[in-house]
Amino acid sequence: MKVKTILVSQPAPKGENSPYFELQDKQRVKIDFRPFIHVEGVPAKEIRLQKVDLNNYSAIILTSRNAVDHFFRVAEEMRFKVPDAMKYFCQSEAVAYYLQKYVVYRKRKIYVGKRTFGELSPLIKKYKDEVFLLPTTDKLKPEVPNTLDNLGIDWKQATFYKTVISDLSDLADVYYDILVFFSPSGIESLFHNFPDFKQNNTRIAVFGNTTMKAVENKGLRVDISAPTPETPSMTMALDKYIQIVNKSK
């Protein structure tokens, strides 16, 4: 069956140069965006119940842009003036670059990993005398705390924001040829909103092995997956699939 419509379970890209818009024009398909999950901040008073006093920490571990936003939100709510001497350990260059929204980059002590959390850990270990705070989500991959425990450092994890299922009830009678998912939470949201969901002719595209496993655990069929050596991005995987199925016979 040919593909005419795609629903991506993420917010719409902000830039005009998104590969999704290029894909839409190239393949003449309609692509809609709708976050199946969203992030909500945990109030400062709830964070205090986690026994977090920001004065006690000399270094912050930041794994995402959400972590950056919510650390500084909580600091403001707690009327905590972040000291210039605070050290920031950022999982990737993208996170470190985003940090500039809140601090003057060249005047701060910022340490940057390459991409994965494991690649950041040698930098953290180098400063093992610091007291580290990990502001994070309620759905944190176990790899992160396991890695920090193995480093033998003084650290604390605190939930600064939560992943919440979005209300998708307005999509009840809307059909898409392809649904695109990037996390197990997206699949959880699908079945929370539509407990009787049947795949039928809907194609499902997934990014990552954990997302694929979540789809298969629900008895659904994965039709498109990324990353692969030849299609490292979701848009490339979609493009390849559409080229095949939309060919005129």
Describe the protein.
This protein has helices at residues 19-27, 44-49, 65-77, 93-99, 117-126, 143-151, 184-193, 209-217, 234-245, and strands spanning 5-8, 30-33, 37-41, 59-62, 87-90, 109-112, 131-137, 154-165, 178-181, 203-207, 224-226. It is an alpha/beta fold and 249 residues long. Strands 3-8-7-4-5-6 form a six-stranded mixed sheet. A five-stranded parallel sheet has the order 2-1-9-10-11, with helices on both faces. Helix 7 (184-193) links the parallel strand 9 (178-181) and strand 10. Helix 5 (117-126) runs parallel beside helix 6. The longest helix is centred in the first third of the chain and has 13 residues, at 65-77.
Question: How are the elements arranged and paired?
Answer:
Elements: E1 5-8, H1 19-27, E2 30-33, E3 37-41, H2 44-49, E4 59-62, H3 65-77, E5 87-90, H4 93-99, E6 109-112, H5 117-126, E7 131-137, H6 143-151, E8 154-165, E9 178-181, H7 184-193, E10 203-207, H8 209-217, E11 224-226, H9 234-245
Parallel strand pairs: 1-2, 1-9, 4-5, 4-7, 5-6, 7-8, 9-10, 10-11
Antiparallel strand pairs: 3-8
